Amino acid sequence: MWPRGGYPMEALEVSMDSEAKITPILIITCVLVATAGLMFGYDVGNSGGVTSMDDFLEKFFPSVFRRKLMYDNDNGSAYCLFNSETLQVFTSSLYLAGIIATFFASYTTRHLGRKLTMVVAGFFFISGVVLGAAAQNLGMLFTGRIFLGCGVGFANQAVPLFLSEVAPTKIRGGLNILFQLNVTVGILFANLVNYGAAKIHPWGWRLSLGSAGIPAFLLTIGALLVDDTPTSLVERGRIEEGKAVLKKLCGTDNIESELKEIMEATRVAQQVKRPFRELLQRHNRPPLVFAIFLQIFQQLTGINAILFYSPVLFISLGLGNDASLYSAVILGSVNVLSTLVSIYSVDRVGRRLLLLEAGVQMFISLVMITVVLHWHVIDNSEDLSHGTALFVVVMICTYIASFAWSWGPLGWLIPSETFQLETRSAGQSVTVCVNLLSTFSIAQASLSMLCHLQYGIFAFFSGWVVVMTVFVYFFLPETENVPIEEISEKVWKKHWFWKRFIDDDRIPKTSVTSA
Ligand code: BGC
Q1: For the whole model, what pTM was predicted?
Q2: Domain named Major facilitator superfamily (MFS) profile: which ranges (predicted)?
């Protein structure tokens, strides 16, 4: 899941499992490092809440504030509340900054190491949080948001790479999804903070933006405390240090075979001088297509639009001021718990089944929501009846649950396990860029779409769910339990469509890791 950098060395998925134990130091290291997921989740979950706070809107986005007042006085459309270009740019600037930062982070992960890249991310986060929480004008606010985006770019590049380099193969998949689990916990935390902060006038929004300091601080301290990965140390010629860390992580002095693998993998990966060019070769077409399409499809499920819009639906349940709290707790918990389902089942039932089942479930939920909202358009005084609104809430939960055990984690996991060793890092850079770009575009578009299509937006997303489910059915091969270095032989070559891209005479260069 997430990027492993734009350079061959970052692609190393060195297996450290011959003698390696799951040691306490390994677990502590991973827990510290995974706090970056909290930070990303907090950023994703935070902006929706802050941008609906009156004090915040009045200070920075007065036109949106006036519209909201009209809505509160039963005089405007709920769908068009947040349709403001500046507000959209505020939300999206984080993603744009993240895209640009990802490329710099590719460089730093290689030349400065994973650890230092995470420390850099932590400092970006802390600066962004301070600027945002202390913002006196739009300039400070936007700069803070851009810094946060840079933090996301650096952290999301280094952290998953770090986790996969220190994790034994047998728990690597689970660790990948653990990162997404942290993202969902971050979203939940942000929503809860928003709920409390919205009641504090006039500076609650500062508290809300400032609370991101907690995960930012945790990540920075964590990054300062952990050792760099053995792979990163060996890559930079610090072999003795690499050995020492390897012994510590594995809990044994017998690390010769792991060290040999790391050295060999380093050698092979360094032979590929231009991984991005290599990525464009015909035989790399299948994983490249998946990196791009899975990320675009993940956003076309409409998850972020739905997470954003749900509080309005909850208000119509008649929950009054507590609507957003219920929305945060219920949807946030469904998101977290269903991600746990994914961790449990992904290596048991496989990726395809999860995605296909979720496609059906998401389609039904979205169609139901469209039909119900078509009957009872939420506008002005036409509120939903209690029973109908409850039904819609159940459908939203059903939708979020299926997203959280399928497209949420698998949109990240599958690209990370289908690239060959020499292009894995470059491929992951593409993955994260496409994610940020499509999150950005769809976030921009969906607020306008919500305004113009109203409930039709759910129908729009349901159409895309059909497209992506058909795509999965015909084109996505099962990668469960297939060692990464055998993907080409065991997966692409056997697939009715992708086999035409793989040459028989191509010697796999990636046999340096053991399954
Ligand atoms: C997506 C985010 C989304 C989150 C929801 C992630 O996998 O990339 O865009 O907000 O899941 O849990």
Answers
A1: 0.83
A2: 29-480
